[in-house]
UniProtKB/TrEMBL annotation:
Main enzyme class: transferase
UniProt-recorded name of the protein: Phosphoglycerate kinase
Keyword list, A-Z: ATP-binding, Cytoplasm, Glycolysis, Kinase, Nucleotide-binding, Transferase
EC number: 2.7.2.3
Cell compartments where the protein resides: Cytoplasm
ATP-binding listed as a keyword: yes
Subunit composition and interactions: Monomer.
Binding site for substrate: 19-21, 35, 58-61, 117, 150
Ligand binding (ATP): 201, 292, 323, 353-356
Major site of localization recorded for this protein: cytoplasm
C-alpha cells in the first residue's frame, strides 16, 4: 500500500475521498467538525508538495437526488476557514462544472465536489460513474476510513481506474491503531461495549473474547443479558431473539477466562425523556412501566475500577441515553475513567467511533485519549476480521 509520505504530489491533481459526513443544525451550521479537521494533514501534505486537491464526499442519506439539506456547499466556508484558503466548489461531482473546475485547478488550490450520493450510482458501486469521477484527477487518495467498509464507486470501485493509489493519513492512522489494539496490546486489556443492540456487536465481542482480559457490557444491550438471566427489565430495550446468544457469550467468556462484567444497578425512568422521573434500582429489578436509561452508581464504580487497572482499553458504545444530560452520567464517568488510565497509567485507549466518539469529543476529552476513531461501522468490521473494500482497493 502506497503511503502519503512516500508519494510526491508535485504537479499532480489528487482526487481525495474524504468523510465529510458531518452533523448540521437547522441553519446548516456544522455542530461537530472532527471529521473535517482529521483530513487537514492529508490535504496540507498534498498542497505542500505542490499538488492540487479535489475533495469528494457524501453527506447524509439523500433519497431523491440533489437536496438543499445535504448539499456540501454548506461546508465550503467552514472548510476555507480551517484551511486558511479559499475552497472552490463544483455544484456537481461529475458533469461540466466538475470537469471544468478540476481542469482549471492550479497547484496549491482546493476544489470541493457536490455530494456524491446525489447520484444513486455512488452507493451502487457503478463502474461508469466511478470512471467519470476518476477522470478529474491524476492520483486517487483514499482517506475516508468511515466508509471503507462500503464497496461504493468513490471508496473502492474507482481504484480500478488509477495506477497511482495512495492511503491518506486518516486511513493509515485508523489501520495502524486497530492493528496495535488487536495484535500488540499490553495486558490487562479491557473492552467496553455499549450501545443499543447486541446484534450490532456479536462478531466483535466473539473475536474480543480471544484477546481481552475484561469485557464490560453496558448500554441498551445489557438489558437483553439481564432478561436472559431471569431479570425484570420493564420497558427497557430488548432483543428477545438474542437472549440465548447472550447466555452463550457468558459461557464462552467463562471458558476462555475472560472477566465479563454486567451492570449491578441501573438508572430507570418512567418515560423516555430527559425530564422523566428517575430512580436507581438493582439490575434485573425494573418495574413494568419503567425503563433503564443509564448505568447506576455501583456499576460506575466497578466499571471505573476495572478500567483504571488496565493497560489497553477499547470503548465502543455509550452506557446510556447520553443525548439526555440526566442520563449521560454513566457515559461521562466511563469517559473520565478512560482519560485517567491513559494519562496516569500510560495505557493505550482507542475510542471506537460513532456515539462513543461523539460522547468523548462533546465532553472535551478527545485529545486526552490515545486515539478516537472516525469510523464506527468500518472499525468494527475491520476488527471482526472482515476485508474492507476501501482498503482492498488500495492494495490491488
Amino acid at each position: 500500500m502506497t503511503t502519503l509520505d512516500s508519494y510526491d504530489f508535485s504537479g499532480k491533481k489528487a482526487l481525495v475521498r474524504v468523510d465529510f459526513n458531518v452533523p448540521l443544525n437547522d441553519k446548516f451550521e456544522i455542530t461537530d467538525d472532527t471529521r473535517i479537521r482529521a483530513t487537514i494533514p492529508t490535504i496540507s501534505k498534498i498542497l505542500n508538495d505542490g499538488g492540487s486537491v479535489i475533495l469528494m464526499s457524501h453527506l447524509g442519506r439523500p433519497k431523491d437526488g440533489p437536496t438543499e439539506k445535504y448539499s456540501l456547499k454548506h461546508l465550503v466556508n467552514p472548510l476555507s476557514l480551517i484551511l486558511g484558503k479559499t475552497v472552490k466548489f463544483a455544484d456537481d461531482c461529475i458533469g461540466e462544472s466538475a470537469t471544468e473546475l478540476a481542469a482549471a485547478l492550479q497547484p496549491g488550490e482546493v476544489l470541493l465536489l457536490e455530494n456524491l450520493r446525489f447520484y444513486k450510482e455512488e452507493e451502487k458501486g457503478n463502474e461508469a460513474f466511478a470512471e467519470k469521477l476518476s477522470k478529474l484527477g491524476d492520483v486517487w487518495v483514499m482517506d475516508a476510513f468511515g466508509t471503507a467498509h462500503r464497496a461504493h464507486a468513490s471508496t473502492a470501485v474507482i481504484g480500478k481506474f488509477f495506477t497511482d493509489k495512495v492511503c491518506g493519513y486518516v486511513m493509515q492512522a485508523e489501520l495502524d491503531n486497530a492493528e496495535r489494539l488487536l495484535e500488540h496490546s499490553e495486558r490487562p486489556f479491557t473492552a467496553i461495549m455499549g450501545g443499543a443492540k447486541i446484534s450490532d456487536k456479536i462478531l466483535i465481542i466473539e473475536r474480543l473474547l480471544d484477546k481481552v482480559d475484561n469485557l464490560i457490557i453496558g448500554g441498551g444491550m445489557s438489558y437483553t443479558f439481564s432478561k436472559a438471566q431471569g431479570g425484570s427489565i420493564g420497558k427497557s430495550l430488548l432483543e428477545a431473539d438474542k437472549q440465548e446468544l447472550t447466555l452463550e457469550l457468558v459461557e464462552k467468556a467463562k471458558a476462555k477466562g475472560v472477566n465479563l462484567i454486567l451492570p449491578l444497578d441501573t438508572v430507570i425512568a418512567d418515560k423516555f425523556s430527559n425530564d422523566a422521573e428517575r430512580k436507581v434500582v438493582e439490575a434485573g429489578s425494573i418495574p413494568d412501566e419503567w425503563e433503564g436509561l443509564d448505568i447506576g452508581p455501583k456499576t460506575i464504580e466497578i466499571f471505573a475500577d476495572i478500567i483504571k487497572n488496565s493497560k489497553t482499553v477499547l470503548w465502543n458504545g455509550p452506557m446510556g441515553v447520553f443525548e439526555f444530560p440526566n442520563f449521560a452520567i454513566g457515559t461521562d464517568a466511563i469517559a473520565k475513567a478512560v482519560v485517567a488510565v491513559t494519562e496516569e497509567n500510560d495505557a493505550f485507549s482507542l475510542i471506537g467511533g460513532g456515539d462513543s466518539a461523539s460522547a468523548i469529543n462533546n465532553a472535551g476529552y478527545g485529545d486526552r485519549v490515545s486515539y478516537v476513531s472516525t469510523g464506527g461501522g468500518a472499525l468494527l468490521e475491520y476488527m471482526e476480521g472482515k476485508v474492507l473494500p476501501g482498503v482492498a482497493a488500495l492494495q490491488a
